[in-house]
Design brief:
single chain; 464 residues; alpha/beta; TIM Barrel; 2 domains; four-stranded antiparallel sheet; 11 helices; 23 strands; globular
């Protein structure tokens, strides 16, 4: 099942929906056969983006911690492209921006004579170009996308091209091999895909779903799996021929649509579910996250930013935690600031699921096999980064309603209890310290973030 972002944009267009080029090597884990270094370009910071939001919403989004705005076209649902760009500049927000694709019978191509790509090239805050949205679901064909890229290059644009697929491509809902023909398309530099798992009820990826793909793999969230298969594969037994391209996972902070069974909105995630899903995407290799905040309540009732206070707070918490990873005294633990893309890391997937389970959570439960190799025991996944003579560790409790205990000698953990959905960050030399918590206001102000949270004994706001 798929919700079309394009449909929301076109329906809402009259209402003005609310809301340095990165060169180098996108590095991902190459230990343990988990992937190889890629020569494709990746961002030099972790992208936290909002998708297709109007200028009036941008200040609120920046307050939640985002650093990038994404839109597949430069006319931004109502011809307000110049104001959109200016507002991004006023707020210091980076941009991933498409050209001016005019619809013809549901198709965005051929490209129009527009200086959009020339503007993108000359604008230091534009970090990438956006191809037409969801090409796996609706034409144009690959050749027409490649013609669009050639058109941009003819204008002197050398910046990366980003394409966002539907969740069908990543196997979140199994639809056979047809849409997966896109995963090894070489033209885009940066990939993206919808990850609306909690909304559509497919929360985790385990045995019954893996059976469709002909192999058993590590237990993870549906969203984490969607990232992992695009970063390193395999996908439905199809190997990834261009591994480790920068991957942006699209998460829903809005209810999306009234098209759910019975005409009811899709369920909204809780803050815990949002953070669990986001960290699973990061652990599995994401170089960015993009928030899809729309809600289609039926024309003309289009809501551009349907993010509620709980999820706005969760996003701010996530942004503050990512800032901690990126601002360690020994260096940026998450991103390779010299070469671009994720810093080289050791992927620590969860144990394989080997039987049982199904499509519904929590009614259906996975069965686990024996932990082997670099795998973490159930219910954990994580990664390690060697930096400045230290090993930094991140681990996530994948269970969204039960605490779980982690013991792992590589990470120097012994019977450490993680709350439901909790992610911890620590140095191997100091395994009892969670660098994500507590985080005090003065530190947050230095990081330029605006998280929310409870209060500790001193009255200071804390998160984590």
């Amino acid at each position: 099942m798929k919700v079309s972002r394009r449909g929301l944009l076109s329906a809402a267009a009259p209402l003005l929906i609310p809301g340095a080029t990165f060169q180098g090597i996108a590095a991902a884990a190459d230990q343990g056969g988990q992937g190889a270094l890629s020569t494709l370009r990746g961002p030099k910071f972790f992208i936290i983006a909002a998708y297709a939001q109007d200028p009036g919403s941008m200040s609120a989004w920046k307050g939640r911690g985002i650093n990038t705005m994404i839109s597949p076209t430069d006319d931004f649902a109502g011809g307000n492209g110049p104001l959109w760009r200016k507002t991004c500049h006023d707020l210091g927000l980076k941009m991933i921006v498409g050209g001016r694709h005019e619809a013809e019978g549901g198709r965005y191509y051929p490209p129009r004579a527009s200086n959009s790509y020339a503007l993108n090239q000359s604008d230091p805050l534009v970090i990438g170009n956006h191809l037409a949205d969801e090409p796996d679901q609706t034409p144009p064909l690959k050749a027409e996308h490649e013609a669009e890229i050639a058109f941009a290059r003819s204008l002197g644009n050398t910046k990366p091209f980003h394409v966002a697929y539907t969740n069908n491509v990543t196997g979140m809902t199994y639809v056979g091999l047809g849409p997966q023909q896109w995963v090894n398309w070489a033209a885009p530099d940066w990939l993206g895909a919808d990850n609306y798992a909690y909304q559509i009820g497919y929360t985790y990826k385990y045995a019954a779903l893996y059976a469709d793909e002909g192999y058993v793999g590590p237990f993870t969230t549906m969203s984490g799996h969607g990232v992992s298969v695009l970063v390193r594969g395999p996908l439905n037994k199809v190997p990834i021929t261009h591994p480790n391209r920068a991957m942006i996972a699209y998460l829903a902070t809005g209810r999306i649509t009234d098209g759910a069974p019975g005409g009811q909105p899709w369920p909204r995630m809780t803050a815990l579910q949002f953070l669990l899903q986001a960290w699973s995407c990061i652990i599995n290799g994401a170089a960015g996250l993009a928030m899809f905040a729309h809600y289609n309540a039926g024309s003309p009732h289009q809501i551009g930013d349907d993010t509620n206070a709980e999820l706005a707070g969760a996003l701010a918490t996530l942004a503050a935690q990512i800032a901690i990873l990126e601002s360690q005294p020994l260096g940026n633990v998450l991103m390779d600031t010299a070469l671009g893309g994720r810093r080289a890391y050791i992927w620590r997937p969860c144990t394989d699921s080997v039987g049982g389970g199904g499509f519904k959570w929590p009614t259906d439960q996975p069965n686990f096999g024996s932990t082997s190799g670099l795998q973490l025991p159930p219910w954990f996944e994580g990664f390690e980064v060697a930096l400045g003579g230290e090993t930094f560790c991140v681990a996530l409790n994948l269970h969204d309603s039960q605490p779980k205990t982690l013991t792992d000698t590589r990470m120097n953990k012994s019977r450490d209890v993680f709350a439901p959905g909790q992610c911890k960050f620590w140095k191997r030399s100091a395994p009892s310290e969670n660098l994500f918590a507590p985080l005090r206001p003065t530190a947050l102000q230095r990081l330029g973030r605006h998280p929310t949270g409870g209060a500790d004994a001193t009255g200071d706001q804390v998160i984590g």
